[in-house]
Protein 1
Amino acid sequence: MPDPAKVLGFAAFSGVGKTSLLKRLIPLLRQQGLRIGLIKLSHHHFEVDVPGKDSYELRQAGAEQVLLCSPRRWALITELEQPVEPDLERMLVQLDRAALDLVLVEGFRHAPFSKIELHRPSLGHPLLYPQDPNIIAIASDVPLSKPASSAEPARPDIPQLGLNQPQQILAFILHWMRTEQTLDVEPDGGEP
């Protein structure tokens, strides 16, 4: 049985450009022959089917799970009786990780797994990496200086990448996939 896909997150405050970067990176990763999965955490109410379509109407009628399928794709929509904060481990078991090489995760920035931090100093948000040992690199739109205050412990070895240089980020990810031990999230909640 093939090894399950590695899991790599992109952590940032809202508005930094996680989705924009992923839209540029995924085709580059696919060109390398990688099979990519994606989990995106949304803090908003969302619909994946639209009013007037059968799947939407049947879910609105009370179906708790709706599996929509065609010869080209399928999607499972599950309604939750009570709101529950999404959990990365529960979401990962929904994917067929044996059929993937890499799962990219947008969000779940507080979960303990390998992540690249995206940062735009002009937005005024603090860096996440000083408090998160799972951040393996920082992609910023400008070069960052090393932390000056003792409140931000320096990690001089953390790689800095160009946020607007997807080829550089691609090279980092490929190197990471080949050489690094990941803090991969396992379905049982533990690390490998």
Protein 2
Amino acid sequence: MTTIQPALDGTIPDPPKTATRQRAEDYETWLEQVWPTYLDAAASGRTFTCFEIADANNLPEPPDSAHHWGRLMTLLKDEGYIRTAGWACTERPTANHSGVRTWKGTAAARRAAA
């Protein structure tokens, strides 16, 4: 059991908010939720990692996190919206700063946003 220390005025503070994100029920619904955010990132022209965009926009986790994030990036690349830009260390807390691919939007992504 967690003990909560009352404030000096006697009020009980709100419990701390955790960094957990919701998980989507199915792949298609999740893809519809996250696709526009990644198109915006591609249109920005900056280099990014998959996790940076998900974390900054508090995107939901897919049903199968180990595979669906990579599949999303492959779909965006196959559609011509992003290209590989290099490698970086991930900021994902559970990945121990592993190397991950970085991405950059293409001219097609910038045209689609216009």
Protein 3
Amino acid sequence: MTSILTLNLMGYAEKHGVWAKRRGLIERALADTQPDIIALQAVALDPAQHPDDQASQLAASLGYQAVFVAAQTHADGRQDGLAFLTRGPLPETRRFDLSLRPGLEDTSRRVMIGGRFATPQGPLDVFNAHFSWVPEQQEDNVREALSALEGTAGAAAVLVGDFNMQPDSPYLGGLREAEWIDAWALLHPQEQGFTFVEDRVPSIRIDYVWTRGMRARELTVVLAEGEGAARASDHAGLLARLERAE
């Protein structure tokens, strides 16, 4: 069985505490759960804060390897992006740039990254996405991601990340039509599975684990609780334990 954890790190934003405190919460959770593969969104590289990106900082503390892919670079050298962590060999990471419509409220560049990881059950394609919160851009993001995912049709695959869409979003229908399975809906159809924090408690579900050719045997919300005034992020994480579909 292969375990995958997905989490939006919230960069260096301090609305739930400074990074040093949040990092400690995340490191303890990862040390306790020991996921085989970690997919992170909203990962920051800020030379004024630390010479390494946040994913590489976590990897160095926990004995993982990390690969960070910048979605955008700011004028002052800061970068925002996505990352994979793994205890095994890092795969060649593919970057899929998603389009950005002009004139929308969300001006952030969006990307999806993918890698083929070696697992005891064979190769597993893992895709890590961070989609827009603007509906018009969400539609584009899902369509473009599906086009990229067609290249691995027939392979065992997992799509995770911060989709910024609730389960009733019409744009998620494209994934279902392409026979991707929403693991939370499959395993916990009567539970909300909230992952995004509003007013200090998770209140909506916008983070996902989707599978194709794999079956989620367990899926739990992690890092939903804070410590005092600090939380790991404005998102909770999801920890999935997966095996090959029969």
